[in-house]
Structures are given as structure tokens and as C-alpha cells.
Amino acid sequence: MTNEKEPTLTREGFRDDILHHLKYTVGKDRHHASVYDWRLALSYALRDRIVEPWFASTKATWDNDYKRVYYLSMEYLIGRILEDAAINLGLKGLAAAALLDLGQDFDVIALDEPDAALGNGGLGRLAACYMESMATLGCPGYGYGVRYEHGLFRQRFEMGQQAETPEDWLSQRHPWEFERPESNYTVRFKGHMEERHGKTVWVPGETVIATAYDTPIVGWEGRWSNTLRLWGAKPTTLFDLERFNRGDYAAAAAPETLARTITRVLYPDDTTYAGKELRLKQEYFLTSASIKDILRRYLESHDDITELDKHIAIQMNDTHPALAGPELIRLLVDRHDLPFEQALEISQNVLGYTNHTLLPEALERWSTWLMGSVLPRHMQIIEKIDAAHLKANPARPASIGIVRNHEVHMGELAFVMANRVNGVSALHTELVKSQLFPALDKLHPGRVINVTNGVTPRRWLKLANPGLADLVTETIGEGWEADLDRLEELVPHIEDNGFREAFMAVKRANKAEAAHWMKVKCGIEVDPDAMFDVQVKRIHEYKRQLMNVFETIAQWHEIKKNPEGDFVPRVKIFGGKSAPGYAVAKEIIHLINDVAEVVNNDPDMRGRLKVIYPPNYNVTMAERLIPAADLSEQISTAGKEASGTGNMKLSLNGALSIGTLDGANVEIRERVGAENFFLFGMTAQEVIERRKNVNHAREAIEASQALKDVLQLIAEGRFSPNQRDRYHGLVHRAWNSDYFLVTSDFTDYQRAQAEVDAAFLDPDRWARMAALNTAKMGFFSSDRSIRGYMENIWGARSAL
Ligand code: B1H
User: Fold this and answer.
1) Residue closest by Cα to atom 24 of ligand 1
2) What are the pLDDT digits (tens) for 514-543?
3) Which backbone phi and psi does 219 adopt, to 5 degrees?
4) Disulfide-capable partner of 386 in 145, 275, 402, 545 (CB 3.0 to 4.6 Å)?
5) Any idea where the domains of the chain sit in the sequence?
């Protein structure tokens, strides 16, 4: 599948391509072109190079009738595309050289691109890594998603508090997509059911058109390319001319407003579901358009709809697209005249469901009233699925029902409709079986399997950390990018002083670069020789940024008490957004910023402690901070973080972890070895036990003078001098409820932090541990994850 034209591509040729696009696609001459114009021209020139492998991949799939995999996700947190595409095509060097001839700087141009932020956090970023790995592995596949006009909001800090402004990535031209106005489907909502000639007919009350926008996703070395198809919404009737002529312009535009509302904005909730009618409509919009498109493509080259399950697999990324089951059945029954039982069986053979969380607030439930009013036909079908499943399992507990207490439980629906259900780390999968779906797991043994998450090494090492990537290549040769297990070959080199020095020199350079960026971005000077202690992820109580701030305050207090003492210098770096409606998380953000203000302006802290919280953490910021991290904070309450993927990225880039036995931390620790992982805290089982003691928080605080002092300092208003009672609520909750057990794990966390300090004081030991982290991360390549999905869930084969 290699692009045969590529060897002939020269620096001059590529320069001409860029100039051609600048002139004929962008419409600018080179003397008046802005960075934006150059970026578009470069993007189009690169995109041209994807088209050949893209067409070739599509043709190969048709010609060989490969099994196709469809990934349905409400989120794709892609980030920037240009540099990633250039690297995968092997054209970054050539592009940079060609631009140099034109007086332009590749890095400046790449940085001009806005992040495609069509996701909240880990779940959306995972979908993006998986799309890239499927292309790398030659897994014939399509991603389906929503083309949100506004991705995840931009975060600002106003007096230390999070404020949100709309994100606006589509206000600029988006050069990576191809609009497909000819690929469109009518999606229907509301209305009622009627009996006509013995058939039930859905008479919809609202309709919108889903129209396709395709982005080619190119894999490593451009050997294969898949399509990410995002659906935009268009009105079925443009506008009401009669109303317009009467002068009622607002009412005339109603159809357009209705349509555009659906794809207007990404719901900014991570691990909590919104429960809003519009969200249900978005989910059905994605699902319906995708399933119709899938059936259309299937029937273009196959006659027998009953053979569908031999030729395709559909993966549901959490329950957000779980209407795929009822929708597929609806189309098979109502349009293709299959009996319900057969439609059910085919659909089950086709579908897979990935669960990403056990948190009760994230488990989608829709009232039967809302489901029945937005999707009356689907409500009927869901009840039939439920009845058929209950009938097939007479000796069952009540808890397996899909419809319970007048609510549709989307987790149970997805489980029943899927032939494989998977968790995202070994621990999480065990908990899916034992805590989330115990009865369903017993009824369907073997259905729940594990596929531990992974991250793409192309973006998270090659692109984000070119210094380390080059060192790896110098040390073990080329090819590790698509065979990450080869990082293991670094292990013997860790004994070599020269290698360790080179490894730490890369880290030092990355830290210096990040320090410069922090100075520009936050106006705070940090010492690149201090330990960079990084916690970057969504702000959530279960992720326990609060415990990290408490520890920061304890450290500040220690230094205040002993200003002449010796302390290991640390820069505490935080990054992450809170859901706009999540008041407790917003309070934690406020506290971090308040503590930063006090710490960073305290002369006693100079050379010892700094707190940095750059606003608007996103994929691009992750690419800056992760390569500069020494310490990775993975400190969630055990049993709550399904997997984590930031933990993998940080280890891959040579950061040591301080963490709990949660999610994929367990597997990371297994691989790097217990002596190279700073473990602390209760296990998932101990967490459950601990909560039975209603006085757990009070007892934990009473047992620790340091923690008592921390809470006292916060309560006194030492970090909020102009509003001393600001954190009374927070302190009260720490003493009296503390569901996520910050106080119970705090003392052990401090103990582990002291061990971190001791290790950092021995640079040679630290270097060995850091290099070992990189060397042992091969397993966490998303290529390994996708192979697992292909073999154990999709039954798909590589086309390469
Ligand atoms: C994860 C979500 C999530 N789990 C609901 N669940 C959402 C749930 O908009 N919603 O309604 C959005 C997102 N996200 C994360 O998935 C887990 O917390 C991480 O531990 C995991 O690594 C990641 C990928 O599997």
C-alpha cells in the first residue's frame, strides 16, 4: 500500500506544491501570505500526499471484501493534525526544508493550528489514538463522530476561578476534511407511531439531515489510511419563505436553528452524564446516520443482509452510541423485513461495547418518558429487547433488566446487545464483572473481556519528544515507532553511563523549554533543575488533585517552620479543566490558584517550591508538559480511575510515577517493577472497607499533625486573605465526609513523596529509574490494544 509517487518527491517539488496551494487554493501571493495562509498551503500540500494511500486503502478493502470495523464515538480529542500527518508520511524533514527555502519556519506554522478538541478527556483522546493505530496496523476501519461547531470550552482564570469561553475551531478554514454533501441521511425525532396495513410506522415530528465530513487518518509511514467521518447537521427545509416574506425572520429561520443546535456544542462533562434531551438527540443523530451509512455501504457490494455479521463489526465507545442496537434492529425489521429475533441476533453478532467507568454519575439512564417522546419506535424496540432477554433467561435476578423504575439503563442495553463487553484495564475489567454487571456476567460468562488502553507512540513520543525519540533511534535503531516492544532493547544500555547522561540531557532540555514557556505563559520563573512534579488531567474529586494541594501546603508549612533547612526543590505543575457545572471541582481549581499565589510570592520558597497552573490544558499543552515531567501524579482513589492514559504517556517520556493501585497503574507498576514505582494508599478493597468506618476522615486527620495544620491553615484563610471563610465548606467536608478518602491516604502519600525526594537526590539512581520507565512502556502502545480488539472482539484482519 505504499505511495509509489513518494520516492520522487523532492524538496523543490514539495516547495512548488506549497506555492501552488498558496496561490490556487488559498488565493494569496507569497509576499502577502500570513502564517495562517502558509499553514493552509502546507496542510493542503500534505493532504495531497494522503489521498493516494487513502484511495488505495479504500480500493483494497472493496476489492478484497475485508471485514470492516466501525468505531462509534461521541468524542475524538485529536489535537493538532498537521505535524502528526507530516511525521506519519515521513515528510516532516522535507516540509521543513521546503519551507525554509520559502523563508518560513515549520514549527511556527505547526503551532498556528488550533486543536481539534472534540472531546473532554481520556475517552476522547483514546478514540483518537485508536484511529491512528487502526490506520498504522492496516485495520480497515471507519471512525464515526459528531462535527461539533464548538469543541471543549476554553478555560481562563479570573481571580483564580475557572471561567469558560466557547471554543471556535471552525471559525478558520479546516483544511483536513472533505465535505461530502452527497452522503446524507434524514434523522428523525419525536412524533408518534401508527398502524398502517398491519405494520407499525413511525411518523416523525422533527427531522434533520446528517451530512458527512471526511478526514483521512494516515498511519505510520503512510502505508494505510482510514476515514474519520464526522456528521454535521443541516435543516431539511432551508427556511420558511412564507414567514420570511411576512417579516417574521426569527420564525423563518427555525428549521435552521433546530438543525444547527444539534451539532452546536460538545457537552463538557467528563465521567458524568448530562441527562439533557439535546444530548439524547446528539447521540441518536450520530448513531442513526452512522448505522444507515454502514448498511448503505454493505449493500453496495453484498445482496444478503442476513450475512451482515460476517462482514462488519461495530464498536460502541461507552454507552453514548448504545442506540446502535435498537437502531440496527429497527432498520433490519422496518426496512429490510427481517423478523425481530433474527434482527436481534445479527445485531448482537455485530456489536461490541467498551465500558470506561464505574462511577454511578456517569452511567447513562433515560426516563422512559423522554426516550418514548424523542424516539417512540426505539422505546418499543428496547422493550422488546428487554423482554426477549428476560425470557431467554428465566432464572435471573431483577437487576439485569434494561428498563427498570421507568428508566432505560444504557449500560444494560449495551451489554445485552453486544457479543463482547470490555473494560479498559485489568483491574477495571474485574470490577466491571464483580461490581457493575455481576448478574449479567454470570448469565453470559466470557462476554466481558479486558483490553488495556494504550497510547500512540507516534504522537506521544516521536512528535511530542523529538529529543528522546532521536536518542532511542540512535540507541536501538529505527522501527520502534511501529513496534514499541523494542523499547525493551534500551534496558542493557541503561547500565551505560553515556546513555544515562544523554537520557537526562534530553529531559533537562525539555524542562528548560517548558520553563521558558511557563515564564511566557504564566509570568513565573522556574528552575529547570528543580523536580517537575506534574498532575495533568480533568479536575475531579476522585482524581484527588486536592490531596496534591494539601501536600503542597504541608511542604510550604514545613519550609516556613524551617527556612534554613534543606529541601528538594519542586515545581508543582497542574493542568486541567472542570466541568462548568461541577462546583466542588471548581473550588479545587480556586484553591490551587490561591495556594500558587501565596507560594510563588513567598521569598522563603525561592529555589524550593513553585506552583504553576497554566490555564486551558489541552492536547497541545500535554505535548509540551509531558516530555518535561520528572514525576507523574496518578493518585486517584483506588477503584475509581478505570484506566488512565496520561499515566502511560508520562512513563513513556521518562517520568516516575507516584500512584495508587488503580486502573492501569497496576499494570505499569508490574512492568517497571515495584522498586521503580512510588506506591502508596489503600487498595480498591481497602477503600470499600474503610468507608464502613463513619469516622474515617476525623480519625485520619486526628492522627496527623501535618494534615491538621494544613486544614487549619486553609480554614484560617491563609490562602484567601481577602475572604477568609472562602474554604470553610471545603474544610468541613474534609473533616466530615471525604468520600474519596483524601485524608485517609494522605499520610501514606506524604511518606511516598519523601521517598521521591530521596530518590531525586541521587541523580544516577533517578536516571536509571527514569530510563527504565521508557524502556518498559512497550506494552502500552495503542497498537497492542488495537491488535487485542481485532483478535478478540472484531474478528478483523490486517490488510497489510
Ligand atoms: C472515561 C468517561 C466519560 N470514563 C461520560 N468515562 C462522558 C463518561 O460526556 N459524558 O457523558 C464523557 C466521558 N471518560 C475515561 O476513559 C476514564 O475515566 C479513564 O480512566 C480512561 O482512561 C478513559 C479511556 O478509557
Assistant:
1) 123
2) 999 999 999 999 999 999 999 999 999 999
3) -85, 180
4) 402
5) 1-64+85-114, 65-80+115-453+785-794, 475-780
Minimum-distance ligand 1 atom for the alpha carbon of 644: 22
Q: Choose one of 118, 148, 270 to mutate for the ligand 1 pocket test, by most ligand atoms within 8 angstroms of C-beta.
A: 270
Cell representation of residue 756: 521521591
Confirm or reject: Cβ of 644 under 6 Å from ligand 1. yes
Residue 798 and residue 69 in contact, taking contact as beta carbons nearer than 8 Å: no
Q: How confident is the model over 767-783, as pLDDT tens digits?
A: 999 999 999 999 999 99
Cβ atoms < 10 Å from Cβ of 573: 23
Query: 65-80+115-453+785-794 — its CATH code?
Result: 3.40.50.2000
pLDDT tens column, 545-588:
999 999 999 999 999 999 999 999 999 999 999 999 999 999 99
Distance CA 739, CA 727 (A): 18
Q: In a mutational test of the pocket of ligand 1, which residue from 75, 120, 123, 456 has the highest number of ligand atoms less than 8 Å from its CB?
A: 123
d(CA 775, CA 671): 10
- For the chain, what is the largest distance between any 2 Cα atoms, rounded to a whole number of angstroms? 90
- Equal CATH topology for 65-80+115-453+785-794 and 475-780: yes
Percent of the chain having pLDDT more than 70? Answer: 99
| Ligand 1 mean position, distance from CA 123 (Å) | 5
Distance in angstroms (rounded) separating the CA atoms of residues 519 and 516? 5
Task: Give 291 Cα–ligand 1 centroid separation in angstroms.
Answer: 23
The tens digit of pLDDT for each residue in 34-55 reads 999 999 999 999 999 999 999 9
> Is it true that domain 475-780 has CATH number 3.30.420.40?
no
Whether 457 is in the pocket of ligand 1, judged by its Cβ within 6 Å, is no
**In sequence order, what are the residues at sequence separation of 6 or more whose Cβ sits closer than 8 angstroms to the Cβ of residue 122?**
270, 356, 453, 537, 538, 643, 644, 645, 646
The residue type of 49 is R
Q: How far apart are CA 91 and CA 95, in angstroms?
A: 6
Residue of 357, 421, 641 to test ligand 1 pocket, by largest number of atoms within 8 Å of CB:
357
Which residues are tagged catalytic? 356, 537-538, 543, 645, 649
Ligand 1 midpoint to CA 148 (Å): 18
Cell numbers for 524: 513565573
